[in-house]
Amino acid sequence: MAETTKTEKLTGSAKVYKQLREDILRMDLAPGQPLDEVGLAERFSLSRSPIREALVKLAGEGLVHVLPNRSTIVSPINFQDLPRFLDTLDLLQRATHRLAAENRTEEELAEISAAREAFLEGSRESIATNNSVPHIERNYDFHMAIARACRNPYLIRYYGQLLDEAKRLGHMRFQFKSQTTDLKPEDLDAQHKQMVEAIARRDGAAIEELAHEHANLFRGQFMDYVMANHTQRVAVTY
Q: Which InterPro entries match (predicted)?
């Protein structure tokens, strides 16, 4: 009986985690918005225990923030720190991707290639449904497949944290681009394709340059979004 209860609780926690994570990434839950355990328990028809477990997991990913009074909010987006954040993302992306080209095995190359194909499918789904989450998640998977091949656990860990934090920025960028341009999966994949080719031929210099261009492309497109929207409806911390 106890085992059944535990399974049900884990299933409930996983359900809450998945839904809240998607709500946060899609900005349906705005940065800075309070997350009330009682209200969430009513929404999901669950006790507070699985709600709390889901919030702890989300906090570990940096998507929610626990305040000193133990209340929980959706993590704010600090636009003042954005240039430093993007600089760091650029540096770690260049380092992980160059080392991956130099150190990768054939098995890791196959994993990277498969992750690129999944990214293409995720982008097609996102464009068709106007839901950025598949595109964002598969983009994360692609770059982390490359990072794992670099064989440096410290770079992998910190790069992964930055990619997690960048997901909401990626949503805003995707929504802005989908409203202002005719998005095509092949265009979104163009630099990824070049990255896989550089890794396949073990060209560290080429992929480092591609990784830098990729980070700068993200920076430019996101700043276009900020300028067009004047950061309205986004919580800004100072």
A: GntR_C, TF_FadR/GntR_C, Tscrpt_reg_HTH_GntR, WH-like_DNA-bd_sf, WH_DNA-bd_sf
